[in-house]
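Incident log, structure service

09:12 report received: a user says their structure output differs between two submissions of the same chain.
09:20 pulled the input from the user's history:
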Amino acid sequence: MSTSTRSSTCPLSQFSACEISDALIKLGSPNGGHIPDVHMLSPTSQVKICAPAYTVQMVLASDKSAPKLSSHFVDTATPGSVVVVDAPPQAKNAVWGGLMTAGAQARGAVGVIISGRCRDLAEHRAADFPVFARGHSTVGQSPFVRPSGVNVSLTIHPKDAGDSPDAFASVTVTPGDWIVADEDGVVCVPVDMVDKVVELAKKGQEIDAKCMADIKAGKGIQASFKEHRGK
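09:34 re-ran on a clean worker, output below:
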């Protein structure tokens, strides 16, 4: 089955989310850039996103101290971007629906990543619009949450993350960071790390191809890893 890629000409688009996470781990990232618990809900065919982040911060509607937006956050999405929405973890409502997909497509956005929930799955799929989310819901934003900021840094925490030193590290998404998302998950690559990630991901891709050839030929996994990966 072929994979449709929604991307610019960024060299990261030639790699899978897994290959990019492996490269980020080698560069010292504590989480491989992985935004956990977020899965592809639309479309039903294989798709990959590779685009710069346009970020949206949601807050609880009861939060009266957070700023209010003068425009709808979809109306200010930038062409070629992927919308990244961070919703309060306790919210059970959707923060994205079919009308937002229509608006995002009209403005040239290539998809949406939601640390939270969406709704109107049939509409997203009919529009062939990539939607990655932690889940879905039947209720919309109001009266539960509201947008409070766009093009702001987001700190996305893993679902049910504890305070243990072994807990999976949160991911910071800065506007313009590169987002790569496919059927395996979602990865954020800081802009200043793109060149190094591409270099290491290419090497990893080549090594894995050699391992795969040897393993298919009957060589043991341990022996193949030792020869090509050095361990």
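09:41 both user submissions now match this output. Likely a transient worker issue. Closing.
09:42 reviewer note: The two ends are 33 Å apart (CA to CA). The mean pLDDT is 94.
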